[in-house]
Structures are given as C-alpha cells and as structure tokens.
C-alpha cells in the first residue's frame, strides 16, 4: 500500500476515534446532567403553556427510570377559570431512539394508572376555549396560504407516533360534560401488547361494557380494530338526549392500511363498516331505520387547498356497491372562485332486485315486498361554486336495462288508474275522505276543466309535465342556486308528478326518508308507465288543496266563484294557480267588495299571462290578463277583512318552506319539530312570484324604529330594483323553458 494512502487511513481513523470519544464524553455529560436538562425543558414547557394557552400545568415529580424512560406523578392541566382538563396519577413513558435522533418524538411504551381527561361545557363556555382561541389567533397572523397536505401530514403523523407499540392503561376516565348531559368512558384496561389490542371499557359506569379488539402496529401505522358491547348493541344515550337521535349498532370496524405522501398530496387508505345499524330520528323517518350492513373502502387525499375521497374508493350497502368521488376546494380569491364542492356517485349495472333488497328496513314502507327484474345503473354528478351559484351543475339518473315490476310491494301504484278514496291529513290527523271517481259529483274529468285553468296551473307549477319523466333537473339547479343565495329554502323543485305521489301515497311527515321514497315512486310510475300523464294530471287537479277544507277543482270553482271548472275564465284560472302553494291564505288576497288586492297579486297575473301568451296559450293582453275580472262570490265576501289604505303593486315572493327541508336539517341537529307549520308545495322553474301576507319575502323585517324620509325613499328604490330583477329573471327563465 502506498505511503500516502496509509497516512490518509491513519488520519481518518484517529479523526473518527476522536469524534467517538468526544461523542461519548458529550453523552456522558448529558447523561449525568439529564435530570437538570429535563427540569429546564419541563419548566420551559410549563411557562409556554401558561403564557400562550392560559393553562396551568402541574407535575408532582419526574425522574428517569432508564436511558429513555421517564416516570411522572400527579400531572394536572387546568385552563384559567375553567374545569380541569387532565389529571393523571402515575405515568411511565419510553421514547424510541432512532426517531429521537432524527428530531421526532415517538413513544415506545406508555403505562398509565388512574386519572381522567374531560371536556366540560357550561352554558356557552368550555374548558378548551383558551386552546382553540389561541389556535384561531395564530392562524390569522400571516397571509401565507396554508398547505392542507402539510397540515394533514403533521397532524396524522403526530397523532400516530404518540401511540406506543406497548400500551398499558388502567382506570382512565374519559368524560364529556355538556351542561346537564354527561357521558363517561372508564377504561378499566386498554392494552397493546405484541400488536394485539384488548380492552374493557365501562360506558357511564354500569350502563354497558364495551370492548376494542384487533391488531395495532403503531410503528408501521397499521390498525385493524373492532368495537362491540357485551350482550347488547352499542348505544350512546347522550345522542338521544342532546339530538333526539337514537343510534345503535352491533359492531363498528375500522382499518388504517397505509399513510403516504406522493405528488404533493397526502393520502390515507383505510376502511370502515357497520353491522345492524339502527337509527331513529324525527327528521329521518317515523320508525326505526335498520341498515344490515354498510361499508366503505376509502382512499382519502389532501392537497394544497383541497380534501376529498378518491374515485378508487368503494361504497357497499347490502348487496350493492358504488364508486364515490368527493372533493372540497377552499376559496381562491385570485382565481375568482369560492368554495367548490364536487360530488360524483356511479354504479355498474346492478341487479334490480338486489338493489331493492339493499334498501334499509323501515326507510321506504310502500316498497316493502316489491319484486322486480332487470338491471339498473345510477349516476350522479354535482358541482357547486359558492362564488358562482348560478353555474351549479346537477345531473342525477337511474338508467334501466330490461327493468320491470313483477309484483307490487305494500302499495299498488296503479290504483290511481281506478276510482279510489283519498284522505288528506292536517297535523297528522285525517280531514275527511274524498272519493276520486265519478261517484263524487265534484270530481271533474280533465276534458271538462277549462283549458285556461289547466294551462295556468302547468305554467305556474310544472310547464314541462307532459314531456319530462317525473323530474326537472333544470328546476333542481335553479332551486339549489336560489336557496343558496337566499340562505334558506325559498324555492323547491317538485314536479306535478312528485306532488301527486306525495299526496296520494305518502304521509305528510317532513322527513328525509319520505322525500327519497317520493322520488323512487315517481321514477317507478313514470319510467314503468304505470299511469298515463293525462290521468295523473286529472287526479292532481281533483285532490290538491285550494283553500281551508277545499279539495279538488270542482269544490274550488264552486267555493270561490259559484262556477263549474269548465266555466272558469282566464283571471279566475290564474288566481287558482296563484294560491296553490299557500291555499289557506286564498281569501286574504281579496277586498271586501270581492275584487283582488293589487299588491302582490296583479304583478303575478301579468307575468303568468305574458308567459301563456308567448306560448300561444292565450291572447296577448296589454292589461293584467283577467285580473280585474275576478270577483269572489257574494256569500264569501263577509269573511274578507277590510284592507286599510291603498297598497302598491309588488312582485314579492312567498317564503315557501321548501317542502319542510329547511326545518328537516335543523331537526337533525336539535330535534325540534314544527308540526303546526302548514305544508306549502314549492314552486318550479316557470315564473312563480308568490305573495307574502304583508310584504315581499326578501324585504327587511319591520321594526319599531322611526325612519327618516331619506331612508324610506332608499327602501322604496331598493324594493323597486328587486322587483325589476325578479321580473327580468322570471321572464328570461320562461323564455329559456320555451325554447
């Protein structure tokens, strides 16, 4: 070996030896001083918690019990002026060496004895307020956009690395106290030993015994866990007390298979399932809903400004499966976009009977026992940008391939083709039986109803009724945009088919299940051609409510005008179409002399009349299309209250309740039901300006404050501007429908 090479090797060896000696000396010094260093680190952490989060952290004693193991006693975390957050009597913790060398803290083992962790809410205050407020304050300190993928990666990795490979917890009480409601989970034992998970958890002391079992490999970030209870279903009474939601399940299963960062996205792959899920909530269904099996193989992704579920995921419900895609994107002011929601759901061709068999029990009572044949495929696409609500995209369709009904279920949907008895309900109580057939003298065949009435109602409610197959997707899109801009359900998308099905076959409960069942029945009737369109419209006109205890066009024509349906003129027809959404208010639109009020009503006549004239359904009229020809029959005029003062014309819209869906979602969270609220059917894509009782729906609420003349002039100008915009929108929409 050359001399130079020997020198290099010798110098290198001495250098490495010197570094090793220095490292050993440093490690020896650090080891001898580790107690003092630990005290300094803990003091710094305690001061930071006090300064930044108003948390008082107490530690009775701390000491090393090994090279990387600590023993702590009497740990407490108390927010300022709040209930204690954490109290632990004895904790022993070990740290993994290699992650620590790389600057990461990962636990190798954790032993915990006796203590509690609690979240307490008293009135509107919680013992987490100081922590959450600090985080919100920190998030506003910089204008730099946060990368959600970085946040997700740090959060998940920090969470998973704090779960040790060896875990031994005994007598740890987890509490949630919400004013007078409380839930406690007492972990008698919770262990991870050689990747096996075992536990015994007491719910509310002795209410139930729960178990978490399965496998866990925290260092590999892999989990496969099951949650179940001894001798009874899983159930948390707190949900029923707080939200009126009764939820039970036999088993919950969860898996985490992979965590990865690739191509600027943070991804998680996992799965979850539930068996024998039982739900009961007044906004969902009047009876228990039972889901025998539901599962999902989920691939989640988080990018710089978006989060979602990848289309490679699979949803399972009973015997069928579907491919979902969900993406939520944060607003981008530079690009001019708001929050963007993108949802898709697709299936392959499904066995139709398997699909119907997979519906949750108790959800669609009228379909119980139905027998079908053929194939069905479902496709849904939805894209909504909150900055451009009118550009919403919505398409939903069930495609059939050889589908047919072999046997009806609990309800025979072809009964509409024959005479039957219809029973309207109010506040869940039957009003009276109405015979829908020739044995009822008020029943009027479609050909004996004035064409003006037939055309006015379709123009108002569902102009494309005779050409669509039960649904109007454009009306759905307009409804979504309108309701979002209004911040409430102001406009619905129910077609005549949907209104008919709701009245004839379903109860009037404002529940999510009833709405979905309504859609399914409409699809079966329309796509199976079970009932001719003419018959559907005839029955619709003969059963809908037109006033207090006034049902059907025969009763309505006689009640208001002492006429037969064939004798109705254009003005009377438009008025009857006008009151369909709020029939009980009909008399309030008249004056004591039997003429119609000008305010709110005349503008509606002009809009509907012009649309009908444009479509060749009536003659153009420079006036108000029969508005001044309407006269209430004399016998009813004494029931009309006097109208003080003259009133201006208006095109305000009626605050329709959107078929109760606004209340429905409120019920999902607070359980409150408004059973006294009358049902008003929402309007369609055709122009449907509706009156409110006293003012347009979008006008500001009256107050007791005295306003200046300038304020009043500004309000009148703003009111006229809104009226013009509403009129222009309705006419443009009508023009689009007629193309």
Describe what this molecule looks like in 3D.
The chain is an alpha+beta fold and 739 residues long. The protein has 18 helices and 28 strands. It has a 22-stranded mixed beta sheet that branches. A two-stranded antiparallel ribbon has the order 23-26. Strands 24-25 form a two-stranded antiparallel ribbon. A hairpin with a 2-residue loop joins strand 4 (107-122) and strand 5 (125-126). Helix 10 packs across helix 12 (533-543) and helix 14 packs across helix 15. Residues 437-593 form the Glycosyl transferase family domain.
List keywords for this structure.
739 residues, alpha+beta, 28 strands, 31% helix, membrane
How widely separated are the two ends? 95 Å
Count of DSSP helices?
Answer: 18
Let me know the largest β-sheet: 22 strands, mixed
Q: Low-confidence spans: pLDDT under 50, at least 5 residues?
A: 139-143, 645-707
Q: Roughly how much helix do the residues carry, as a percent range?
A: 25-40%
**Class derived from helix and strand content:** alpha+beta
Overall average residue pLDDT: 82
- How would you describe the shape? elongated
Domain Glycosyl transferase family: 437-593
Keywords: Cell inner membrane, Cell membrane, Cell shape, Cell wall biogenesis/degradation, Glycosyltransferase, Membrane, Peptidoglycan synthesis, Transferase, Transmembrane, Transmembrane helix
GO molecular function: pentosyltransferase activity
Region (Disordered): 645-739
